[in-house]
UniProtKB/TrEMBL annotation:
Chain ranges passing through the membrane: 20-43, 55-75, 87-106, 112-133, 145-167, 173-195, 207-227, 233-253, 273-297, 303-326, 338-356, 376-400, 412-429, 449-468
GO cellular component, one term: plasma membrane
Compartments, record wording: Cell membrane
Keyword flag Transport: yes
Organism the protein comes from: Streptomyces globisporus
Name of the featured protein: DHA2 family efflux MFS transporter permease subunit
The UniProt record lists the keyword Ion transport: no
Sorted UniProt keywords: Antibiotic resistance, Cell membrane, Membrane, Transmembrane, Transmembrane helix, Transport
PROSITE patterns: MFS
Main location group: membrane
Annotated Gene3D superfamilies: MFS general substrate transporter like domains (1.20.1250.20), Multidrug resistance protein D (1.20.1720.10)
GO biological process: response to antibiotic
Record domain Major facilitator superfamily (MFS) profile: where: 21-472
Amino acid sequence: MAAAGSAPGEIRVASPVGRWVVLTTVLGSGMAMLDSTVINVALPRIGEDLGTDMAALQWTVNAYMLTLAGLILLGGALGDRYGRRRVFVVGVVWFAVASLLCGIAPNAGVLIAARALQGVGGALLTPGSLALIQASFHPDDRARAVGLWSGFGGVGAAVGPFVGGWLVDGPGWRWVFLLNLPLAAICVPVALRHVPESRDPAAHGRFDVLGAALGALALAGVTYALIEAPEQGASPLVIGSAVGGLLLGAAFVRVERRRADPMLPPSIFRSRLFTSVNLVTFCVYAALGGFFFLSAIQLQVVAGYSALGAGTALLPTTVLMLLFSARAGELGRRIGPRIPLTVGPLLAAAGMLLMLRVGPGSASFGGYVTEVLPAVLVLGAGLVVVVAPLTATVLAAVDAGRAGLASGINNAAARAAGLIAVAALPLLAGMGPEAYRDAGEFATTFRRAMPMCAGLLVAGSVLAWWSVRTPAATAAVRSERPECAVHCGVTAPPLEPERREG
């Protein structure tokens, strides 16, 4: 049980208990965040070790994203009903066990299944960690506590590719997953000892399990068709999966419209601004998902980087976000969101096009400085400009009482976008099943894929310029101050807490 004097809503950040609460929530969310950012640099080595094809590498990424995106909204609701600490601890333990299964997986099938289980754990602990912060701390300290959680999480995301590369080149790719075991061993007892249990007395109604299942299965059907099409072509299974996924998606929309307590309330999309900004989010994070998936392989297979070298090469992007995201948020509040949401994606698109210069010889110091570094710096600058104003605009588009829901929907949309991009880009670029083993083939298809990623960003920029233009929207964003000001949202925007009365 939690220590004495640690009642929900009364803990101060400067107290010993407050520091323990921050530690355990950072460790918990950090496990999921690290797994999202380190996996890409491990993919070539996983493929070599397990003898897999390109489709299996796509599934290694997407199995995790599929269950995480499909269940993250439900995970937050479970914590409100059954206890935030309880659901958080269950999520950490679940995630750790799934990580162990990933680390000992004898073949690609077991690894993919374990990654899907990891996503379930991530859907419990990711919203749960932020909910614990919001419920545990005194109202006067909540903003500071969320800021610490966001800042330390940003550091974890920034160093994730570096840590992943070091593990892959050192003890091996399996330690990318096994690293979660000691983190969980610290996190769980600290949570049980120091974090008070809390629930939402107003949480009522039935859980939208049907909606969550339909949403996840719809994504799974479409994803399967996109990933398997290069090898199976227009086979009955591929066509059936695509059609089934679309039908399940339509059923999901129908169910959500009819339920009294839907997981994804259709009414929230009555806000034109909210709908438009989520479409911008989809474009931006689809491009990012495809970029980081393919670039980590390009740097290793084509340019000749080690896993550590590839992770380090991409580091400037996340470091820029860590250092300047808060300042970009302040700039967005001063000038309004339209310019940052238009210019940021264009800068990021330019960075992705600069990656077309990366090829054999780029692994030298001179090659890195002249070919890789300019690309990742320009990309990072674009993300610095766009991500914080994007979050603020999402929050400004809804009533304050729905801020947590709006943030969760935006986060899920970003993860679904990355999922679809990782599934679709290799197909659209013409990558064969063995592309990652052949430097020439991968380089050719990479040159086709990067303009597609850039095109998504340009589409997001145009949409932002067209839709985020009303004086009311600008005024709302200028008054909005997201609590997660420091972040490295390369896989999804930062989650924002529910707004509570103090």
